[in-house]
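User: For my dataset I need records formatted as: sequence, then structure tokens, nothing else. Please produce one.
Assistant:
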Amino acid sequence: MIKSKKILSLIIAGVLGVSMLTGCSQNDGSNASNENKETDSKKQKNIGITQLVEHPSLDKAKKGFIKALEDKGYKDGDNIKIDFQNAQNDMPTTQSIASKFVSDKKDLIYAISTPSAQAAYNATKDIPIIMTAVTDPVEAGLVKSLEKPGGNVSGTSDYLSIDKTLELVKTLTPKAKKIGVIYNTSEVNSKIQVDSLHDYAKKNNYEVVEKGISSSSEVNQAISSLVGKIDVLYVPTDNLIVSSMPIVSKVANENKIPIIASEEGSVSSGALACCGIDYEKLGYKAGELAIEVLEGKSVGDIPVTTLDETEIIINEDTLKALDMQKLSADNIKYIKSDENAKSTK
């Protein structure tokens, strides 16, 4: 009987021992799983930035994006790796950059400009894309709607009612009757703005004289052909034209043609004035949206954002060159021409 009790005690001890070992084994596995999840979340993220062309406004959009990431603890070379590529205004290169980002399996693509965003979207429907400096994402075929983008694209739009910009024509050149415009016929965003220009002109009794081009080599001839035919030149957020602004402003200012632009970069390059948005703030907001994606949110569920805040910017050097006087309004920012613009005068 005593022997039986000893055997029973040994059996119970053995069962308890096995249970304890099993429990420890399960706990170790759970801890390892949790550690793996933490490692995955902290894994370095690879971000590809594709920019169509070097230009002050687009450069600011890039700067703002990186600043937003840094402010939230995302440091290049640490927990993120940024691969920046500039297509230098060459469309095939833009497409090649997008394809390379896809083959490199980037975790996120930041596309600065409409053509850059379109190239990225055409290259992948899987990698999340945050766009910026895109005037009309719906018309460009990038999102279903601004409120519910769907798909793999969202970001920030630089859309601004053309009425705000063209009101400067009335204020600065009240005698003007003919508005000229040069634009790249291949850029969807430019066509949209030119259509809006025609609508505005019709309502306000202006005549529009337009000149469409397809390459930078045509810029000088295009602006020169408008001399004597227009009273003021309107420049949309056209990547080809704004990157050629020193040439455009040189011809226009020499012939006393005021340029009303759509963003500050063009004004610093010699245009007379603009009513525009802050592209660094636009890029910063895009960076905040990118962080949401990096932290797990579906990009298609993030509404496209625009900036409501605008400012009037006037180039003092151009104002003097056109023999015009400063306005007395308080809400105006006066700036000087940058060195590139000055060197062409």
